[in-house]
Amino acid sequence: MSLTAESHRVALSDGNSIPLLGLGTYSEPKQTPKGACAESVKIAIDVGYRHIDGAFVYRNEHEVGQAIREKIAEGNIKREDIFYCGKLWNTYHPPELVRPTLEKTLKVLQLDYVDLYIIELPMAFKPGDVTYPLTADGKFVYHKTDLCATWEAMEACKDAGLTKSIGVSNFNRRQLEMILNKPGLKHKPVSNQVECHPYFSQPKLLEFCRQHEIVIVGYSPLGTSRDETWVNVSSPPLLKDPVLNAIGKKYNKTAAQVALRFSVQRGVVVIPKSFHPERIKENFQIFDFSLTDEDMKEILALNKNVRYVELLMWQDHPEYPFHDEY
User: Fold this and answer.
1) Residue 152 belongs to some domain of the structure
2) Residues placed in the known binding site for substrate
3) Is position 270 within any domain?
4) What InterPro entries does the annotation carry (predicted)?
5) What is the pTM of this model?
6) Residue 237: DSSP 8-state
7) Tens of pLDDT along 241-297?
8) Of 11, 99, 161, 208, which sits with the fewest C-beta atoms within 10 Å of its C-beta?
9) How many structural domains comprise the chain?
10) Residue 146 domain-assigned?
11) H or E element at residue 18
């Protein structure tokens, strides 16, 4: 496929399309200076990004919305040029909470619709506004998950025009099949956002999703932070990999640019997060070179089948997605 900085959208099964490269906006709220997210989104839009990935639970959607609105006001872009993905958090899975939660997101963003709304995780927590509900002795309080009921409420949001497309995140094959085989399904998920990079290239899930016209959106496409409170640090840092660096040298590119290019050439959407202007620019510079079949094979061979983001604190949840092979 010929991809350019101006045109790198791929089709979604509902007739909409998604840019293959986006900006991730997750950051630890306590460690992020006020305004850093808004500044990064504005820089990204100036660089050429048109896809912004966010979430209510990131606590910075007000900054994302402000940045998008300011850029539209400048007259260089229109609302329809921007693709925004928002997410439904675990404490809002009951069907009656889905639409009000999306409406709250729209109010925070001060936008009329999002382009994609996804169920962030297949695990429901105790409903309410406490993001991480805990018992007195510090255990997470789960809620009985009915993914099909939650999905029907997502479909209603699409029908109401609050979101153009609907999808999921961190769903395994069984959980996807549950929705795909749901009696009376109106809209199937257009995407599944999962960890995906050269050390965890998800060949089986990717193949399953392709068969069902579900686009994979890869988070942590450059590996992830080395924060051992929630990251599996037994897998070495991706960007130090000798193969990625050697291939990068050949094209005068960084290991990060090679890793991103590898994913987009497989048709995987990437959403690298960065609040550093130089890295935001660098991550976008992947459309002026392409990897050969030989390069792609070499990078595919790096797969270790080891996740960085294991979410082990929730592994006792009945719908924890990562016990299954894929």
Assistant:
1) yes
2) 143
3) yes
4) AKR (IPR020471), AKR1D1 (IPR044483), Aldo/ket_reductase_CS (IPR018170), NAD(P)_OxRdtase_dom_sf (IPR036812), NADP_OxRdtase_dom (IPR023210)
5) 0.97
6) P
7) 999 999 999 999 999 999 999 999 999 999 999 999 999 999 999 999 999 999 999
8) 161
9) 1
10) yes
11) strand 17-19
